[in-house]
Amino acid sequence: MNHVFRVLVTATTAVAVLAASAAATAAPPDTDRVGLQSGLDEVVAASAIGALADVRDEHGVWRGTSGVAEDGRARAVPVDGRFRVGSITKTFLAAVVLQLVDEGELRLEDTVESWLPGVVPNGHRITVRHLLNHTSGLPDVIPTLPLPPAPAFLDNRWRTWTADELVARALTNPPVFDEPGSAFSYSNTGYLLVGQIIEKATGTSYAKQIENRVIRPLQLDDTWLPGTSTRIRGPHPHGYVPIRQEDGGWQLVDYTRMNPSVFGAAGEMISTTKDLNRFFAALLGGRLLPGHLLDEMKTPGVESRAYGLGLAWRDTPCGVRVYGNDGDALAYQAYSFSTQDRRRQVTVAVTPNFDGDIDDAANAFVNKAICG
């Protein structure tokens, strides 16, 4: 996983949180469902203000919440809440690229230079495939930005960033490695370039392509790419970031509203647990791509990493492999995984309080949902 934002935040942060438990389920409260609720409660207890989940299995659909929607208030997390999905956006973007490959509009072996002349040093050796599987060696843009807990982070809250600006910032740093395809290094910069290549290939924005090719056909009614819009429409939990105060302490700042252009093609999307489960079921079920291109998505760029073309996978403790992705949008974190046969799916979204790293608890919940 790549959680650059989170690592830089949690390394030096300790803040308290009010965590009241609330739940909403759409399935009978049998033993399995009680276990899911307790698991979601444990996610909140570990380091979150609130959490919501959608689990699908042989028992039907379970949708639950825990914690609160706003720090310091008693309002429950909305079970159909919208949230920023972060890098799960990359899987949508990769699916669009592979559809274009299927249509002959571009090739995975096309170079960055052929589509974006003069933009990237060594671009004649970096391919679209390298961008999608994080083996390009291009430096990540995130560490070049002011980040929490620095107060300067808030100065850019409403700023509109362009992909050109963000790519240029990243490329002030040297490559992580010299030979494209030889190693794995997670790079949001690569996906900003993928967004630009889609626009060159189609004549329309990557957001419009995702909407036309994925969101509308799958009827993902609560999923959208906000561009520069700062608000999350519809019901949603509030998200927070920790900011250092003059006295040396820390304060959680409500960061629900912000200009998501800083994420761009690498992570700007907003969705729901229900819509993300529907998307991954459609993707793995062959509704979006032919079999040989879905196989490409599942092919690792390097054998040591369980990451293909915008798609990740993991083996659960019960020996079941799941496919999906996770995303870190700083104030929101999301995890969405499905078995290959789509019989078991889980999506969980969290609003962290940065009292610790939420990954272990969230991954334990994923394992509980898949393994029972």
TrEMBL record:
InterPro entries reported for this sequence: AmpC-like (IPR050491), Beta-lactam-related (IPR001466), Beta-lactam/transpept-like (IPR012338)
Coiled coil residues, start to end: none
Signal peptide residues on this chain, from the entry's feature table: 1-26
Domain of life according to the entry: Bacteria
Annotated keywords: Signal
All copies of domain Beta-lactamase-related, residue ranges: 51-363
Pfam families: Beta-lactamase
Record-given protein name: Beta-lactamase family protein
